Each structure stands twice: as structure tokens, then as C-alpha cells.
Amino acid sequence: MSVCYKLFVYFKEHKYYGKQKLSGKGEWMMEKATVVVIGGGATGVGILRDLAMRGVDVLLVEKCDLVNGASSRYHGLLHSGGRYAVKDQEAARECIIENQILRKIGKSCVEATGGMFVRLDIDDPDYEPQWVKGCADSGIKAEPITLEQAFRLEPLLSKHVVSAYLVPDAAIDGFRMSWQNVESAKRYGGRFKTYREVVDVLQQNGEIQGVTVRNTITGEIEEIACDILVNAAGGWAGKVAALAGLEVGVQPDKGTLLAFNQRITSHVVNRLHKSSDGDIFVPHGSITILGTSSMSIPDPEDTSTSREEVENLLSIGEKTFENLRDYRMLRAFAGSRPLYMPPGGASGRGASRGFAIVDHGKDDGLKGMMTIVGGKFTTYRLMAEKISNQICEKLNVKEPCRTAEEPLVPEVAENDKKEARKYFPAYGTDLAATRLGPERFSRVVEDLKSHPEKRELVCECENVTLAEVEEIAKELSSFQINDIRRRTRIGMGTCQANFCALRSAAVFAKCGRDKGAKDSLGQMKQFLQGRWKGIRPVLVGRTLREIEMTRALYELSFHVDGGKKA
Q1: Residue ranges, the chain, pLDDT below 70
Q2: Cis peptide leading into 292, omega within 30 of 0?
Q3: Structure confidence by residue, pLDDT tens digits, 461-505
Q4: Is residue 179 part of a domain?
Q5: Helix, strand, coil percentages for the chain (3-state, nearest 5)
Q6: What is the predicted pLDDT for the residue at 520?
Q7: Residue 110 bridge partners (DSSP)
Q8: Is 346 domain-assigned?
Q9: Domain ranges, residue 143
Q10: pLDDT tens per residue across span 421-451
Q11: List of long-range contacts for 401-407, beta carbons under 8 Å, 24+ apart
């Protein structure tokens, strides 16, 4: 046992944490939180917010940037629950309730597109009445409409549609929703550390003592003491549990999606049949996402995509929108669902989309450790509430959950946006207001007002100004250009970083954090490789011609090889 760990145990037992002189050699600090949450996806940040709002001292650690895994690698659908109305009514009921809550607390993250379920003449007619009944039983309003109404609302639909229903589906921005949870948590004292990988779970006599984390930027090792440890690592939950000598049944299930450069549909469009591949179209801003596939994989790090997967999605998707191949594909991307696998449970699409909470003190004899796994982005807030209730019971905290009532962030006032339009580019004001929130938005407006040169666009596709990129680059949580991308959407539009990669690298070199900023060229290469990784499987037609121009520009100027796998 190391001297450091012996001291750790001593201070844990004596309920004292803070600075101590060690043999006259300087100061040493053991960081402490009552609750440590592992995992910075939607569920993790939801728990961070919930506990912080109840007055619990809570710290979240994430091995990469926040929202780096499944919470940002999905179709962005805010489920009505209609997709589960036949096979999983509990999940369906949870979805429709949370759908209404998230529309209320996260208005700037939700686009109320509405949804449409359509049955084609090749789909099983017997499934339709089962679905209608399932929706009614689950509390989901499914309004039948005529074919004339359906084609008026969605004129590009296949003429093979034989029936249609409207449901309250919507589109949701996973990046924005998650970061707004963090901003809300910070107002109540919640803390987070990114680029901290948990490498050991510290325990003694069957009780959690804390965690050891490795700073993945600097390589430094830190130890964090806690009373309760929450494993909310999604597809990585099994690996985290193994660090404590435990087993958790998690099956990473990869889903591949396609992003098109056009708004093919105004509503979220679902096929009215048993859930399958390629049967959901979700509009987001100016693009449309088609998803998804289902493939059990051994490693949640596998976000690879292939031309074969793209062709499979296209061949299925064009049954709903017959001219699908006429639209330009932006990219393919993939994420892994953390499906909970109890002993003897089904896998793939047969597995439940519900969630499970495991109290390892009761089940495995390790007091103070809990795991939450499964579920969906739509139900992240409910998942956080359920496990936070159990944690607060252990801590004897009586404060009730308020996450369903209080908005994530205050809205930017209309008068402030009206004034800001003098300085932002056309269409840029509302986009920046929803991305930044009131405080940052106000600072960026003042910067634009005082420094007109900062009105220059770093990313034309997403209307991101130099002032906004600088604001985010200076944040303590921005270590890489990709961190700025997830906050501002630079590089995620039509040109897929063709022009903004070089510009953002220049800004990051000036404003970025320490080691990362010094290697701005390497950061730019990493940024581009991430974009090209998603473009390679869709290299046909206009996309192929455009990427050749990008490759020529960056390979000749900066020796960035677009042919290497990211």
C-alpha cells in the first residue's frame, strides 16, 4: 500500500480533507466530493445537475470531453414513445412524459418538428392496430390523417404510403442539452473535470474510498475521495465496474446514421412497422439524419462506419423517400447504445430500451458504489432523478428533485437579441443566443461591439463568429479544437471543416489551453481527420469532387493526409 493511499485512508476515516504539510516538503491536497459521478454523457450530467440542485457536493469526471459518446452520436430524436408503443410500453410512457418535460425546461435545445408514422404497402397491416392501441395505452396522442394531408405536409413521401399518423416527436440537440445541464449544475456548486480517465476504484473493507484518475492531457495521476461513487459510463460501464472487481451486464450496440445536406422532411418520419434499420428520418436545422442500424460490438470505442452500412441504410430509407439518393450526403457516423444485459436477457433490437440501477452495496457487497445503465437520451432526466433519489436517501438529504420544473438556463431576452442583431451576421443572432446562453452571449455581443474585426465568421456554415470561438476557446474545459466544435458547431455544416479548420486552429493557437494550443497544427489535423472519417463512407458524386478539393488544399499546404484512418 502506497504512502499516498495510506494518507488517503487516514483522512477518509477522520473525515478531514484539505491541505497538509508533509515532512516539510510542501503542500499536498486530497480532493474530496461527497459523490463522484463517472461519465459525462447525458445521464452523468443529469445526475450532476440533480444532486447539485439538492445541495449535494458532487463532482463529475469524464475521460474525454463532455458529450463525446452515445449522447452526441445518435439521430437527435426526442421520442414521443411511439416507437416502443407495442413492445415496451413502460419505455413508451417514460418517453412521452419526459418529452413534455424537456420541451419545457430546455426550450432552446428542442425543435418542435412534430412526428409522423407512415405505413407503406409492404409493411404488415396487422401491426397498425396493435400500434394504435399501444399508443393509446401509453398515453401517446396518435392522430390519424388522410393521405392527402400527409402528402401536403410531406410532399416528398413515397406514393406507397397507405396510412399516416401524427405524434408529438421532436428534434433535440444533444450537445446543447448536455452542456446546459452542466451550466445549471455549476450555478448550484456542481463541479466537473474533463480528460480525467478513472484508472482505479479505491476501496477498503468493502466500502468505497474514492477513485484514481489520470489526466489524459498531461498524464498526471490524481486521487479523489468520495462517499458514493456513481458509474454512469454508458457503454464503458462494464469496464468501470471491472476496476472495482465487479461485473455489470452491458452490451455496446452500434448504430450507424447518415446526415444529408438538405431538409428532406419537416417532421420526424418513422416507418409504421416493427423497429428496424433505416426507418427514422429526423430533421435538424438545415439537415436531415437517417438512422439507424443495430449491431452488437465488443468495444464501445468502435465508431467505424462502412460503405456497406451506408448502402444498407440508403436501400431501406429510399422506400420511404424514393428520391433519397438525389440528395447530397454530408457524412456517416456511429455511436454505441449501452444496452443493459441481465442474465438471460435479449440482445440487439430485442433488448429493452429501459434502464437499470444497480446498488453494488446490496448486490455485491461494495458499499457506496452504484451503476446506472441503459435507457435513452429522451429519458436521461428521469434516470438521473431515480438514482439521485436513492443517493439522497443514503445521505439523508431531504431536498426533493426540481429538475422537471426549473429551466436549464435562462433565455436570452428579446430586447438583448434585437440589440445584438446590429453586430451579428444575418441569421446568426438566434443561433448564437441558443448556443451561448445569456451570460456568454452578453460578453460576445460586447466583444463584437468593441472589436468590429471579431464579427468575421470562422464558420460560415453555422454562422459562428470569431468572438464566439474565442469565448469558448478561453474556457477551462477547452483543451482541443474538437471541444470548441461540440460547443459551437464549427466544422459540422455543409463544408465539413473545409475552410474553418485552418481558421479555428489559428484562434486556438492564440487562445487555447497550454499544451493543446502549442500543437495547434496537430490539433487541426485531428479535427480534420475526425471530419474525414465520416466522409469516407459517402464518397460518391458531388461529395467525392468536393473532398478532393479539400484534400488538395490541406495535403499540399499542411501535409494532412485525408487517406489515413482516424
Answers
A1: 1-29, 343-353, 513-518, 561-566
A2: yes
A3: 999 999 999 999 999 899 999 999 999 999 998 888 888 998 998
A4: yes
A5: 40, 25, 35
A6: 81
A7: 172
A8: no
A9: 80-93+103-171+255-336
A10: 999 988 899 999 999 999 999 999 999 999 9
A11: 401/50, 401/53, 401/54, 402/53, 402/54, 403/46, 403/49, 403/50, 403/53, 403/105, 404/101, 404/104, 404/105, 405/105, 406/53, 406/105, 406/184, 407/104, 407/105, 407/106, 407/107
Report residue 49 as a C-alpha cell. Answer: 445537475
Residue 404: Cβ-neighbour burial (10 angstroms; 0-12, 13-18, 19+):
middle
Would you say residue 273 lies in a domain? yes
The 3-state DSSP class for residue 451 equals coil
What's the rounded Cα separation, in Å, for the pair 30 and 20? Answer: 9
Is the same domain home to 206 and 284?
no
Euclidean distance between CA atoms 111 and 68, whole angstroms: 22
Q: Which three cell numbers stand for residue 331?
A: 457524412
Taking the C-alpha atoms of residue 559 and residue 479, their distance in angstroms, rounded to an integer, is: 23
DSSP letter at 467 equals H
- CA pair distance 260, 463, nearest whole angstrom: 19
Cell numbers linked to 126: 396487422
Which burial class, exposed, middle or buried, applies to 287 when counting CB atoms under 10 A from its CB (0-12, 13-18, 19+)?
buried
Residue 290 — φ and ψ, nearest 5°? -105, 130
Number of domains in the chain: 3
The structure's pTM equals 0.91
